[in-house]
Amino acid sequence: MQASIDTLVVVGVGLIGGSFALALRRAGRVRHVIGVGRSLANMQRALELGVVDEVSTELGDACARAGMVLLATPVGQMGALFGAMAPRLPEHTIVTDAGSTKGDVALLMREHLPGHLARCVPAHPIAGSDLSGAAAAQFGLYEGRRVVLTPLPESDDDAVATVRGLWQACGADVHEMGAHEHDSVFASVSHLPHLLAFAYVERIAARSDAERRFDFAATGFRDFTRIAGSHPEMWRDIALANRDALLGELDDYMAGLARLRGQLAGADGEAMQRTFERARDARTRWYQRFLRGQ
Ligand SMILES: NC(=O)c1ccc[n+]([C@@H]2O[C@H](COP(=O)([O-])OP(=O)(O)OC[C@H]3O[C@@H](n4cnc5c(N)ncnc54)[C@H](O)[C@@H]3O)[C@@H](O)[C@H]2O)c1
Ligand SMILES: O=C(O)C(=O)C[C@]1(C(=O)O)C=C[C@@H](O)C=C1
Questions:
Q1: Which string of b and e fits 187-196 if b means at least 16 CB within 10 Å?
Q2: Could you tell me the pTM of the whole model?
Q3: Pairing of the two strands 123-126 and 146-149
Q4: Which parts of the sequence belong to the Prephenate/arogenate dehydrogenase domain (predicted)?
Q5: Which of 3, 47, 162, 244 is buried deepest, with most CB atoms within 10 A?
Q6: Which amino acids bring their CB within 6 angstroms of ligand 2?
Q7: Residue 294 has pLDDT above 70, yes or no
Q8: Collapsed DSSP state (helix, strand, coil) of residue 25
Q9: What domains are there in the chain, each with its CATH number?
Q10: Rounded distance, CA 137 to CA 124, Å?
């Protein structure tokens, strides 16, 4: 049977939550979408754009009518939201999320929804951009992209199957992983690069002649720094939520950078070239796989 939901509540109607609602509506898998948000202007925009059918600032009232609740706010907001919805959640309502970190979300579900764990299914769509808010929501964002589910040991099979089926209806390729492995993998391939991009641009911006330097920045700078345009609050929360794994990745990167610095200081061109070749080969192989996966 095709997974579908009568009433979906999206808490945080931005790029990720809004695009999920749009995709499910287009696939005919949801009848009614209620958006819950903290910014009235953003909620108004979501309504005007047809991303949601109804907006509400009353989380409990909205959840009381939900077949499924998707949390798509920054991960730092999720504990308070789980706590606020807990008393009003109908027994069968599925609770899922789209947060970029999974160990923290699982712990928050345990803390705030201890009686509801069978219906909780943490998830992470591996698609997005540096844009945010309801106006950034788009059809097709999840087409051909991966989604990682990190079910709890308590999650019901049918709740997992529904969440899986809905993401598949969005065009996604759904995988399952343990939360610990998830957070380790994404610390290296997503969280570290964002931290580096923010740190790098901030150092240039701090120079007294920054504008002069930015005047001449071109495509290399654009490609390396696109993700430094991402939402600062969202990335603060991700970094803090995955702090241990991210610190490990940062230490490893700093060791690699120190090695490269030594090679540069010693004008050891051969060693530098070998490092660059290993990186280029790995990146080329990855990019071919990425293109095949599209
Ligand atoms: N942007 C990406 O590339 C990406 C990809 C995958 C997962 N994610 C995750 O998805 C989540 C949402 O990211 P996004 O890019 O859609 O962000 P976004 O800024 O576009 O949307 C988040 C929305 O949540 C709302 N919000 C914040 N606090 C709230 C609260 N307490 N109650 C109700 N609404 C609240 C904001 O007003 C905003 O509209 C984050 O947890 C992020 O880690 C992001
Ligand atoms: O394309 C981007 O801008 C993204 O940052 C998307 C991206 C990533 O690939 O790192 C960011 C965070 C996620 O949780 C998943 C995807």
A1: beebbbebbb
A2: 0.96
A3: antiparallel
A4: 6-294
A5: 162
A6: 100, 126, 128-130, 190, 227, 230
A7: no
A8: helix
A9: 5-177 (3.40.50.720), 181-293 (1.10.3660.10)
A10: 16
Residues with Cβ within 8 Å of residue 284, at least 6 apart in sequence? none
Give the pocket of ligand 1 (CB within 6 Å): 11-17, 36-39, 42, 72-75, 77, 81, 98-100, 125, 128-129, 132-133, 136, 231, 234, 238
Mean pLDDT of 151-161: 98
**Residue in 184, 185, 105 with CA at minimum distance from that of residue 152:** 105
Which residue shows structure tokens 């600032």?
Answer: 57
Q: Given a cut of 80, is residue 288 above it in pLDDT? A: yes
Mean of pLDDT values over 270-274: 98
Task: Give the nearest ligand 2 atom to 226 CA.
Answer: 3
The answer to whether 166 touches 213, Cβ cutoff 8 Å, is no
The residue count for the chain: 294
3-state secondary structure of 31: strand
- Evaluate if residue 23 carries a pLDDT over 80: yes
User: How far is the centre of ligand 1, averaged over its atoms, from the C-alpha of 15 (Å)?
Assistant: 7
